[in-house]
Specification:
Low-confidence stretches: none
Helix content: 40-55%
Distance between the termini: 40 Å
Mean pLDDT: 83
Structural class: mainly alpha
Strand content: under 5%
Radius of gyration: 19 Å
Shape: flat
Largest sheet: none
Protein name: Phage shock protein PspC N-terminal domain-containing protein
Keywords: Cell membrane, Membrane, Transmembrane, Transmembrane helix
Subcellular location: Cell membrane
Membrane topology: Single-pass membrane protein
Number of strands: 0
């Protein structure tokens, strides 16, 4: 079987200014990251959506060195905590 080169949307280190969201989107789409930054700046000036979009991207896009995003890490920690304790907060015995 042949290997497929699958593009993944990730926050990159190359071209990173704050968290790498714009550089990751630019690399994924195939455009310059500065165009993405300009688009977010315009969206921020006209209603503030740019800041929200950047924050959502930062939380949902995994870093290029990791397989999971920040939100996925938080959910996994909460699930691990909820499976090891019952409602009273006491530890359940491992089966």
């Amino acid at each position: 079987m042949s290997e497929y080169n699958v593009k993944k949307l990730r926050r990159t280190h190359k071209g990173r200014i704050i968290a790498g969201v714009c550089s990751g989107v630019g690399e994924y789409v195939g455009i310059d990251a500065n165009l993405v930054r300009i688009g977010l700046a315009i969206a921020t000036l006209f209603g503030g959506a740019g800041v929200a979009l950047y924050a959502i991207g930062w939380l949902l896009m995994p870093d290029e060195e990791h397989d999971t995003s920040i939100v996925q890490d938080i959910i996994n920690k909460q699930q691990a905590k909820s499976t090891s304790t019952d409602w009273s907060g006491e530890q359940k015995p491992q089966q």
